Amino acid sequence: SVILIDEPEISLHVAWQKEFLDSIARIQKLNEFSKIIIATHSPQIVNNNWDITYDLFENNNKNMEGQ
Predict the structure, then answer these.
(1) Cα gap 24→37, rounded to integer Å
(2) What is the pLDDT of residues 7-38, one digit of tens each?
(3) What local confidence, expressed as pLDDT, does residue 67 receive?
(4) How far apart are CA 46 and CA 18, in angstroms?
(5) What are the ATPase AAA-type core domain coordinates in residue numbering (predicted)?
(6) pTM of the complete model
(7) Are the CB atoms for 23 and 11 separated by under 8 Å?
(8) What backbone phi and psi angles, to 5 degrees, belong to 36?
(9) Buried-exposed string 15-45: b where 16+ CB fall within 10 A, e elsewhere
(10) I need a surface site. Which of 6, 9, 16, 33 has the fewest CB within 10 A?
């Protein structure tokens, strides 16, 4: 299964944003979701988790270079 979360920072205090991915990871382990996709503009949510991020704009530009 896949869970999509769009801009969770809109309803979260900055302090909670920093803990958001850790909470999601714990929930994922309990429920064994195969994928969780989060769209965010919040550096607090990404925090020190750059290794699990995917920059759509950067990858989109790479795909457009060949056109």
Answers:
(1) 11
(2) 999 999 999 988 888 888 888 888 877 788 89
(3) 47
(4) 8
(5) 1-47
(6) 0.68
(7) no
(8) -130, 120
(9) eebbebbeebeeeeeeeeeeebebebebebb
(10) 6
For the record, the structure tokens of 38 come out as 């989060």
Scan for tokens 């809109």, then name that residue.
10
- Quote the CA–CA distance of 49 and 61 in Å, as a whole number: 23
Query: Is 58 buried (19+), middle (13-18) or exposed (0-12) by CB count in 10 A?
Result: exposed
